[in-house]
């Protein structure tokens, strides 16, 4: 057993006062020493947090204690250290950027549990469709899956024509944790696809519960691990080093902050190039110091990590003052 946990989850449920809930949510994370990224939107929650097993358990209980989120499903992984360096709890318009104008609470693809997904992998009438970004499926994907050359889910409408000829097949969408597929599968239904499914809990849950069979490569994740192993049954490497071309499933962000591209780069090339993806990026004045990981904490111009805590303390102070005045 490892000393820390990483929790991945999402849940679609209406949140009326997102600002207040953001402050409350953030305060809980601060008090329980949790780091990570959490998005709160009128349509629900999306988060990845990391901390000790005890603090992560408290967090899961906190989420489920709210009637709106009592059925949330958590993917829990063990890790050697906390998988984040900061805490961000942000309010956004959507819990996953899509602009697809669909509501998964009204209509979405049928959920396939990991065990069900495993049983249909070799069905000739089944087509697996990867709903992740190009840099994600470059380092890992299911055998035979259809992939799109898109950088984010907003580009899906530009690629649907690539699978138009498969409308008579069983379409099974998948992504990292399941959240993108809720909207992607709903969009496919809107576009006239009749038999649409989604892997419930995504690649991560399939790996945890079913051993990840037939997932080639590694799974890209959005924390400082960058990629994680999924397949313990028949693993293989499908990506190549961006610089030397040798087999490599080690992803980095280019050390040039203005580039920041996500590419596989082997240890040797990364050291030689100081974490840069090209000689031009290596010589660029915006190059960051390479620490051997290829992971860099991004700066944010949005919600400050202490804003929620300050708001809660300010409100508490007002309440105490009002109580003394009334007395």
Compile the SSE list and pairings:
Layout: E1 4-12, H1 18-31, E2 35-41, E3 44-51, H2 53-64, E4 75-79, E5 87-91, E6 110-112, H3 114-120, E7 126-130, H4 134-139, E8 140-142, E9 170-174, H5 179-190, E10 196-199, H6 202-210, E11 215-217, E12 219-220, E13 227-228, E14 251-253, E15 262-264, H7 267-272, H8 279-282, H9 307-326
Parallel strand pairs: 2-5, 6-10, 7-9, 9-10
Antiparallel strand pairs: 1-3, 1-4, 2-3, 8-11, 12-13, 14-15
The chain-level mean pLDDT equals 92
What is the count of structural domains?
3
**Strands, total number:** 15
Report the oligomer: single chain
**What can be said about the biggest beta sheet?**
5 strands, mixed
- Segments where pLDDT lies below 50 for 5+ residues? none
**CATH architect. name of the largest domain:** 3-Layer(aba) Sandwich
How many alpha or pi helices?
Answer: 9
Structural class, judged by helices and strands? alpha/beta
What percent strand? 15-25%
Strand order within the widest beta sheet: 4-1-3-2-5
User: How do the helices and strands follow one another from N- to C-terminus?
Assistant: EHEEHEEEHEHEEHEHEEEEEHHH
End-to-end gap? 53 Å
| Shape, principal axes of CA atoms | globular
Tell me the name of the CATH homologous superfamily of the largest domain: Rhodanese-like domain
Domain Rhodanese: 122-215
Family: Belongs to the TrhO family.
Keywords: Oxidoreductase, Transferase, tRNA processing
Catalytic activity: uridine(34) in tRNA + AH2 + O2 = 5-hydroxyuridine(34) in tRNA + A + H2O
């Amino acid at each position: 057993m490892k000393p820390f946990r990483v929790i991945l989850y999402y849940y679609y449920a209406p949140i009326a006062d997102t600002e207040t809930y953001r402050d409350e949510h953030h305060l809980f994370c601060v008090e329980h020493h949790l780091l990570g990224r959490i998005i709160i939107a009128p349509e629900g929650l999306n988060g990845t947090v990391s901390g000790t097993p005890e603090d992560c358990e408290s967090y899961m209980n906190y989420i489920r204690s709210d009637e709106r989120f009592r059925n949330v499903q958590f993917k829990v992984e063990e890790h050697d250290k906390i998988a984040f360096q900061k805490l961000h709890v942000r309010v956004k318009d959507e819990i996953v950027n899509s602009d697809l104008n669909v509501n998964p609470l009204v209509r979405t693809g049928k959920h396939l549990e990991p065990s069900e997904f495993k049983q249909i992998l070799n069905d000739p009438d089944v087509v697996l469709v990867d709903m992740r970004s190009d840099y994600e499926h470059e380092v890992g994907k299911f055998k035979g899956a259809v992939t799109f050359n898109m950088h984010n889910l907003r580009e899906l409408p530009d690629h649907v024509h690539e699978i138009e000829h498969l409308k008579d097949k069983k379409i099974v969408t998948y992504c990292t944790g399941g959240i993108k597929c809720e909207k992607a599968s709903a969009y496919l239904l809107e576009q006239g696809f009749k038999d649409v499914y989604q892997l419930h809990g995504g690649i991560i849950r399939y790996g945890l519960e079913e051993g990840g069979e037939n997932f080639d490569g590694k799974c890209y994740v959005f924390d400082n691990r960058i990629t994680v192993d999924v397949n313990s049954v028949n693993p293989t490497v499908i990506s190549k080093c961006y610089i030397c071309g040798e087999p490599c499933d080690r992803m980095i962000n280019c050390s040039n902050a203005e580039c920041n591209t996500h590419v596989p780069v082997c240890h040797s090339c990364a050291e030689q190039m100081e974490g840069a993806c090209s000689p031009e990026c290596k010589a660029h004045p915006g190059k960051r110091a390479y620490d051997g990981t290829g992971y860099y904490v991004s700066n944010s111009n949005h919600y400050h990590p202490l804003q929620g805590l300050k708001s809660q303390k300010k409100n508490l102070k007002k309440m105490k003052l009002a109580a003394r005045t009334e007395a």
